[in-house]
Amino acid sequence: MTTVWIVYHDSGPDENILGVFDNAADAEDYQESIKGDFPDGVLLTPFPVPWRRTDRITRIDIG
Question: Which of 7, 22, 26, 50 has the fewest CB neighbours in a 10 Å radius?
Fold first, then answer.
């Protein structure tokens, strides 16, 4: 596995991460099924793995 897909929201300060998936299709299905539960919708971002805090460069695209 080289990528995980993180489903999250930014509607509030708590429990922002809603799910982590090993493929885009499952993440998109989940995002679609819960997007109405959050006022600002639900976001999806792929994230490379493995990742460590000590890695020199980390790029996170949100949106």
Answer: 50
Are 4 and 47 in contact, with CB atoms under 8 Å apart? yes
Residue 37 CA to residue 27 CA, distance in Å, equals: 16
Q: What is the total count of domains within the chain? A: 1
Domain span holding position 15: 3-48
Can you give the pLDDT at residue 39?
87
Identity of the residue numbered 2: T
What are the pLDDT digits (tens) for 2-60? 999 999 998 777 779 999 999 999 999 999 999 999 888 999 999 888 877 777 665 66
Cα(63)–Cα(9) distance, rounded to whole angstroms? 11
